Amino acid sequence: MHKLWSKYPEVNKELKEVKQIIEKNAKCRDKVVEGSILELLNSGGKMLRPAFVILSSKFGNYEEKKARALASVVEMFHMATLVHDDIIDEATLRRGKETVQSKYGKNYAVYIGDYLFCVCFKVLAGVGSLDSVQIDTMTMSRICMSEIDQLNSRFDKNVSVKKYLKRASGKTAELFSLSLFLGASESGCSRKLSRAFWEIGHNIGMAFQIIDDILDYTGSDESIGKNSANDLKQGIYTLPLIIALENKPSELVNILEKSDYTEDDVVEIIKLVNKYDGVNKAREIAKKYTNKAYKQIKALPENEYREILLEITKGLLDRIY
Amino acid sequence: MHKLWSKYPEVNKELKEVKQIIEKNAKCRDKVVEGSILELLNSGGKMLRPAFVILSSKFGNYEEKKARALASVVEMFHMATLVHDDIIDEATLRRGKETVQSKYGKNYAVYIGDYLFCVCFKVLAGVGSLDSVQIDTMTMSRICMSEIDQLNSRFDKNVSVKKYLKRASGKTAELFSLSLFLGASESGCSRKLSRAFWEIGHNIGMAFQIIDDILDYTGSDESIGKNSANDLKQGIYTLPLIIALENKPSELVNILEKSDYTEDDVVEIIKLVNKYDGVNKAREIAKKYTNKAYKQIKALPENEYREILLEITKGLLDRIY
Predict the structure, then answer these.
(1) CB contact, 8 Å: B253 with chain A?
(2) Nearest chain A Cα to B33, which residue?
(3) How many beta-carbon pairs below 8 A join chains A and B?
(4) Mind listing the pLDDT tens digit for each residue in B261-308?
(5) What domain of life does the UniProt record list for this protein's source (chains A, B) (predicted)?
(6) Helix (H, G, I), strand (E, B) or coil at A94
(7) How many domains does chain B have?
(8) Beta carbons within 10 angstroms of residue A169's beta carbon
(9) Which ipTM value was assigned to this complex?
(10) Quick one: B164 and B124 in the same domain?
(11) Which residues contact A246 (CB under 8 A, 6 or more apart)?
(12) What is the spatial distance between Cα B98 and Cα B43, in angstroms, rounded to a whole number?
């Protein structure tokens, strides 16, 4: 389990149970499928989304079997999207380990993702209400749609901050929202409290995605564990670059005109994004979401889980301030 | 609508409604996504699976809204798998039209398939019982697993008839079974009758897949509307070839040793498969499944829908006798 959770033995224990559910469901006659699912599961991800389900479930009537199963659902859905995203990004590394598509080929990756989707829905239908299945699937459709939006705006130098935020909302924040919301609503929290969790997930997710994107312009391969500036090479322009491009500085526009960026181009782009204040301004926007999240978490009913949620959120979002 | 249904105005009308549900659900802000889903929907597929849902629903208490929605679910699931299969096969044509992956690229095809999966589950959760969502997702996991089996046995000259039949069962027959089963069980047919429909679907599906594979060794590009012998080039050995290989005739084994088959090789392989009786013997096996299906359909409660099912099945399965 990620060291993040060692301070919180109760959550840590629950996440171990969640892992076991996923392991049980990954079991199948194809050992490569099973192996690659287990490998991804054990590759050191933070398991934030399932932890959010567990934590928000604690605000209601905590039924461990249900909470764990729902937590496994959001993690399996997340894993399925990771496997498919890596096909699109042609990523060779994920969390510092070789990706399914790099190791076994794109074909495998397509079907392993599909298999994970189906298993995720199977577990969901086993414990969730029809209502939650509907919310889940609607959210999931929106997530797929945001991925498509991102594909469409590749190499688009006119992509706006607004469009970026919408994409981040669909791509990342929705699943954070869903995780916190599902835990709350399925453990019988009021509609109002469940909605509050949805909003908290949104703000954490937005800050999280922006910070992730900022790290592409400040981190190194080692520190972020995936191909640095990989997005950039794929033509995915994220917030720091979009902001730096706002006044269309010609030296930046000129490099971006190229269809294929060399390593030197990437270094130069990173330098220019910093020069034109893209990183600092992106940080300010992230800060706004972070502060909103803190404020909303503090307004939750007081209990030990609220404190854990607050601490975890701080740990996640204070990485760059 | 496919001309197959013009003889049956009632089914034809229902299938038009099913199409409208899919069209409504394909509606999204991304016009390429919407367009490519509609294109696939209107590319002249037979819509067998949704028709099966409609027909078996008629044996119970027919609720049109529910039956149509369930019919749209199996068709959307089928469409999602087609889009993803075409990525694996690198197919350029599907039903004589350019595939999503050929027209818009693999990346698009991955996400369009995912989007269709989610929409399919969304519609299902809106009308099905939790039981049917579970059966559905279990079946879907098995279908994905069979696709993976197929990937694994590429270029395997020792693949057995038994293994082929298992793969055909998972890849094709399961969804035929599910379609007939869902319609029956969700319209309140008895457990026994619903199970009978499952079995009928299995036998129709098995015969259908075998016949499809036989046509690869007897048809032409024009008559079957997709790249003839495409499977063969991808190293997917189907029943006629597997049977012809049973006694390991050296002239056939030698060509298959090559890793890349030329057009001439394909022509030669097709010739040898016929020479070593692969096509005839495969036809006999198909015939067994076909006869079982007829017998089981005739044992259904007598009504006009039983006759339609029988006629349709005959039309499908008598293509090669």
Answers:
(1) no
(2) A148
(3) 123
(4) 888 888 888 889 999 999 999 999 999 999 999 999 999 999 999 999
(5) Bacteria
(6) strand
(7) 2
(8) 17
(9) 0.83
(10) no
(11) A161
(12) 10
